[in-house]
Amino acid sequence: MRYLKSLLLASSLVAATGCSEEGYVTLFDEDGTWVLIAHDIDNTGTYTPIDSATREDKFLLFFTRTSGEEEIPGGKMAAASCIDENDNQSPVSSSCNRGFQCRCFNYTFNEATFLMKEYVGEGGYLFTPEEGEPSPEEQVTVLVSEVEGKAFTYVFDPLPQRLFDSDIPTSSAYQFQQKANSLFEGTGCLETCGI
To answer: What digits encode the pLDDT tens for the residues 126-149?
Structure first.
């Protein structure tokens, strides 16, 4: 199976570079809903699965590509974090009993690299950075890689500051798996981000 994937990727590379000078290729098709299934927030090298049914399928990304065929792949990403009565939105400890907090990003995606920049969604705001934290207005480079033995599952390393407890420059890493769009639709974040 891995050989077939490699062969298909190689064929895609040849086809893409043969069709245009740019030849943009992405590691995977990002469109749709991605659910956080495990995290390495403290950069220990060990992934911790989402350990509570309360938090399962409650930390999500939704990508929609808006770029044209000849442009670098890119579009909008909405992120939904479940929150509790104390505004806790941590994938480690939130009780997820009070809806979702939304964050909105523009992105480009080439090969295995996303470039993400946050924008203010409807009724939203950008966080005020503490000393030493990057500004939410700064572009963030996110590297992605395939997770061995798990279909449609990729590591994102890191995520933008404070998203799912991401702490830049610490290299927090997250495993996301593609799932049904219906999981994201109830968050309200598509509307917030204008998607």
So the answer is: 888 888 888 888 999 999 999 999
Nearest to 102 by CA among 76, 127, 119, 79: 79
Strand 59-65 relative to strand 32-40: parallel, antiparallel, unpaired? antiparallel
Give the pair of three-digit tokens for residue 23.
Answer: 């030849």
* Whether 20 contacts 13, CB under 8 Å: no
Q: Domain count of the chain?
A: 1
Give the CATH number, domain containing residue 144. 2.40.128.280
> What's the burial of 129, exposed, middle or buried (CB within 10 Å: 0-12/13-18/19+)?
middle
Summary count for the chain: helices (H), strands (E): 3, 9
Domain assignment of residue 65, yes or no: yes
Residue 48 domain-assigned? yes
- Residues of the domain holding 75: 27-192
Residue 124's pLDDT is what? 80
Q: What token pair was written down for 179?
A: 């799932």
Cis (ω within 30 of 0) for the bond into 49? no
Distance CA 135, CA 119 (A): 12
pTM of the complete model: 0.85
Beta strands in the chain (DSSP E): 32-40, 48-49, 59-65, 74-82, 100-110, 113-119, 140-146, 153-157, 173-179
